[in-house]
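Recall from the previous chapter that SMILES is a line notation for molecules. Here it describes pyridoxal-5'-phosphate.
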Amino acid sequence: MSIFEQRESEIRAYCRVYPAVFDTASNARQTDENGKEYIDFFAGAGVLNFGHNNERMKQAVIEYLQRNGVTHSLDMHTRAKRHFMERFSRIILEPRQMSHKMQFMGPTGTNAVEAALKLARRATGRHDIVAFHHGFHGMTLGSLACTANQYFRGAAGIPLTHVSHTAFGAEGATADTAMQALKLLEESYRDGSSGVTAPAAFLVETVQAEGGVNIADKTWLRALASLAKSVGALLIVDDIQAGMGRTGSFFSFDDYGIEPDIICLAKGLGGLGTPIAMNLVKPDYDRHWSPGEHTGTFRGQCLSFVAGSEALSYFEDSYLMAEVKEKEAIMQSVLGSLGAYETIEIRGKGMLYGVDVGNGERAKTIVSRCFDAGLLVSACGSGGRVIKLIPPLTTPEADLKAGLAILVAVTQDVLQEAA
Ligand SMILES: Cc1ncc(COP(=O)(O)O)c(C=O)c1O
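With both inputs in hand, we obtain:
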């Protein structure tokens, strides 16, 4: 029995899906200890937008370590942090005329969401949050209360309160129903006898990744933003998985015409795959914090600042984002060949695609056979019925095509066996 089976907690999960011991990795490929190579369409669940061991970022981190750059600093000032903040401000915020402050917290996505919820409640004096069906926001109790999946919620051990879930307005057939749900909410907030009061915030993903790759309908998201404004609630966009260029521009909501009050970022923000989380907060709300009220020993990770500063270079020009659009076209056209199967639905934006095979068991078989064939993909969505493709944005075209070919062939085999 390996040390993993002997000693690692029963909680282990991805290692059961990918039964290998990985050793090295470069861009869109990972190699296990036996030398078998895998094309990585999982990419650390959306962390490795710029590939494994991105050369520019790796060199920057090596140089930083070699000159004894500070690695840990809580929220003290460092040159690495200044450089990152200046670049983030200049490359991302200023061109969008965003006056948002940058708040650093413990370095995982759930920390960012917790801080956003706290601040929204503090700023409005209200308790309740509205989140959405199929939303995923993390595992700590505040975020978990907003996460919709019952399997995860069940592990809380206490009631998850002060959050209600309403229909997510995904592009397609259900957008109208979600719009009706919003209208009902609006009416109930205005009706002093409805028993419902306005929330502190609406917490939404523009593209629900874990929820099954559901893309917010533009009209619906704009209606949500305007509802939030009209009832004095904050609009929080959780861009932890769909941000950082994933959908073809830095923020997933860049083409939605909304102005979120708080934006949660983590995962890809550190560029190389080292942890960091950051909220962008409108100054009017940020002023509700007092110094040190929401801390975290590992807030503001210098190695992530160093690599993350390099990652921002990809947004100084339009080269990578143009490539994402070209690669999206490849994904669409290759996956389109599965469109002939009635049971399959393809959804996606940028380089975040979902193949909904309609059934969790089927998806599990496809994921496992892809693994055997040298492709890493994961399942998400209701009952795990959607195969999620989230390859590094820097994936070479040849690897993208090779990975897609494996996925299509495996899916066709599995569907034919089921027929
Ligand atoms: C949209 C979204 N929010 C929050 C989280 C939680 O991030 P973390 O696992 O780093 O706490 C995730 C993780 O997958 C996510 O996809």
